[in-house]
Records
---
Amino acid sequence: MTLSELCIRRPVMTVLLSLATVIAGSVAYFKIPVAALPSFNTPIISVTASLPGASPENMASAVALPLEKEFSTIDGIKIISSNSTLGATSVTLEFNNDRDIDKAAVDVQAALLRAQKRLPIEMTIPPSYRKINPADTPVIIIRMSSPSISLSEINDYAENLMAPNLSTISGVSQVNVYGAKRYAIRVSAQPDALGNRNITMDELAAAINKANTNSPIGTLDGPRQLITIYANPQLVKAE
């Protein structure tokens, strides 16, 4: 007896089963959670490393390659890809879907520690990693420009006024400012003048750093309180 014959011979059962299916589907439909950016863990980890001044070729051979060799020993890795630019390398690790992302992060951290001795000694900042979350994708990107004020002033406006105000809006999780050009004083040295005074570029840089500190210059220890003395010795012009 086929299914169609059974349904024809027993119409009551067929109707009841159809109603039960419709009711169950309706209940399931209204109970399914819906979100524009659902929260879930993706088995992808991104590793970044920087070595200022190194060419993309050097970053690929001296940084990306040792990292990839260490990452290849981690269980559950499906794809390893890297991208090297001037002074920076990014390595993306994609794991199998059944791999626990938290345990994978622990393995990645251990691999970074093992690879540390194979990386260039000039790399003073160790590589870092982060778990990729699609919910971190920006929802709105605001571009700012002005024909009348400088880029540093635009950056100051974005960081100190716009970003704090946007962060107070209900539903906003995070506000980031990218592409900033912060105010800075650029020093152009005169090689002949330095040579006449037997001053090297390293000594000049050390003197500028020493004269441009932003820290307490002393304290006053009174009978009841301790007062910290601050000054503003930061450089604003050439002297």
---
Amino acid sequence: MKILVKVTRNYQVTIPASVRERLGIKVGDLLSVEVDDDRIILRKVIQEIPMIRLGRELTISDIDRLIEEGLMSNVGGSD
């Protein structure tokens, strides 16, 4: 798939709807930017830790649980 997009005066480009839909890109998603010679490569970042909704206050136990889940997934352990 090859689509031309225009760079705005603020050096921004719009990702065409067909590309967003194909890759499942949503508002707020992260994209990595890689430069390879004369190419710019955008990749959707798959986040390992689920996003926590804004406005919800994290407790110490929430943070401890998220850390433990991350550590366990990295070493393949379980309780």
---
Amino acid sequence: MFNQNTAIIMGGTGSPIPTPSYVNAITTLFIDPVVSNPVVKALVTPEELYPITGVKSLPFQTSVQLGLQILDGAIWEQINAGNHVTVFGYSQSAVIASLEMQHLISLGPNAPSPSQLNFILIGNEMNPNGGILARIPGLNVTTLGLPFYGATPDNPYPTTTYTLEYDGFADFPRYPLNVLSDINAVFGILTVHTTYADLTPAQIASATQLPTQGTTSNTYYIIETEHLPLLAPLRAIPVIGPPLAALVEPNLEVIVNLGYGDPRFGYSTSPANVPTPFGLFPDVPASVVADALVAGTQQGVNDFMVELPAALNTLPQTPMPAFPPYVPTLLPPPPPPQPATLINIADTFASVVSTGYSILLPTADLGLAFVTILPAYDLTLFVNQLAAGNLRAAIELPLAATIGLAALGGMIEFIAIVVTLADITQQLQSFSI
């Protein structure tokens, strides 16, 4: 018997201190259904990711290692108190939890019993079959402090993992030569990865359990995403955007899903607990793709005819320009209002200039990675495949890695620029007129 059931809840990247609303949502959605009378404890971890959380923030590796030390101490505190522990990790904290599993396994007989500890992970970048850190194993982007840790171990502790379809961090394409699938995954990082706490209990309950291989204590679920993230900009166009998106989405979905292997699903259908790196091309007969595109064309026309009347009957409203919803979570607290005195204007101008040119540092770090680290990684792939007698793979695997990483690098640069612009805007808006 345990003294109590403790649930340790961590935030994700950019959210080091779990807010009460976040903790309540996570408890309702993921903890209460499986833990009896939980005593919930919010755990503060760094959750920084240079340059996405700012050019002066910690590199991913440093942030994760600090978080790992904090989580390990929190787990043992509860274990030593005679409590059962449920660890909840989201995004970066799911990586922290995955590395903690590796650490506990290494302790052998000194590790906690599986009856004392379990894990619940969402948006896990180390998801064995989909997590971007597992899709491209062995890479270490040292200029950004970003190691690709590999897959969450198939550990003895009961572990439940939830992934949203098209979440580009946790559900990255298996075949990155499919550029549309890569771009959709990048949009999924921005628009899907950040929405787990907004799910409903019904969505969690209807999640699809994925197949696994062999005996395992790990369970994996996929939650369907209604629309392709790639079409979010098109859907945002007043009046005509939603009908046009409805017209092209069925066929575009077929093409995007081929990046995962099966044109019917936006995720890999092979065993979820088996580490699955990126590959070349899916083994799908051309006739299957052709039939899916024919059906998609018919569905798209029907959906367009349904959406069009509703769109035409809706008067467009011009929204106020705003930054994407993920941006505010990555910004520092806004400066307090200040009078527009000469000294304050000069200080703000200097700060704006400093913030503006600071974007050059991550740009240079990304560029350096692409001209040094990526070629070395590609060369290693080439040599290994050539040594194995796979000439075609020796040529195509480095190309696939380059395309997939280019999409990821472009996303990192884009977010860094947007966050920088938002920070500058926030500083300028601090003046009280």
---
Amino acid sequence: MERAVAAGGPPGTGDQYCGTSPGRYQYLMREGKAGAFCAEGVRLSRKGLHHEALFWFGQALRKDRTSIQALLGKGFALGKLGRYDEEIRICDRVLELDPRSVDAWLQKGFAFGKQGRFEDRIACCDQALEIDPNCAEAWNLKGHALGKLGKWDAELECCTNATILRPRYIGAWVNRGYALVQLKRYPEAISSFNHALRIYPDYCTAWINMGIAHALSGQHERAVACLERAESLCTVGSRILYWKGLSLSKRGMYREAIECLSRVIAEDPNHADAWVIMSNCHFMLGNLDESGRCFMVAYGIDKNDIRELVSRGITTMRQGNRREALECLSGVFGILLR
């Protein structure tokens, strides 16, 4: 199926009308207009039908090989399917046609980020900002990449620029808040998440991050309230459960904390922090044997993590990557001081 779509052919007999109705399919094919093909691809991509969208973008490009809208649409669909190298090549083709295409630079940068190539993402954002210094999306995307590299002050500056340029930019408010959390500026972080929630009250990520900010600032009742709100909005994962368990334990609700943390461990048996908190909870309840067992599991995980971090730190130092080596050693000290 993917081979047929990539070549511009129909996705297959399972969907012979390529995501559209028989009548619409026949009409579009009869008219044979590149713009209409492209619009159909965009419509299907917005519905999450990316395989089908590729067919229509392929049809548009058969009519006009230089259609920037069709090329970017095809690249977007490929990226949504996890085919980032192909998306990057498409963006390069657009940039050959129009080196000042901000959309192409941003899309290419986004694909780089999905591959963990954050320096390359930043370079793409810088190109976009050279063309349009007021591009809020470029500032936010650059900020997110800087955060992934641990450059929290720089992320904060970029994301603040994005919120100034576009005050209702939810993603930028959340990324700004995340940078503030990393800088331990919790009241400002909470304010930033509240900005996002005033724009969209059901934004799960903002509730999770605000709950974490409250937990880190010692406001555990508020943390639990935020995390329970997040639970009502999205799939409950280990991140929500861990921070909820931590805050419940800080409030003396040890049984409830153990229930949360047990679910974290069921999903990720190597979550050492969850084992440590659960050990403390069992200790406070007088379950000394279970407390000791949990502690020993955490110790075993920590020992393996320390060994791996030290080994990686030595290797990266020998390779001349001093920054990554220092990050590894910081990780070791973080475990030892827990």
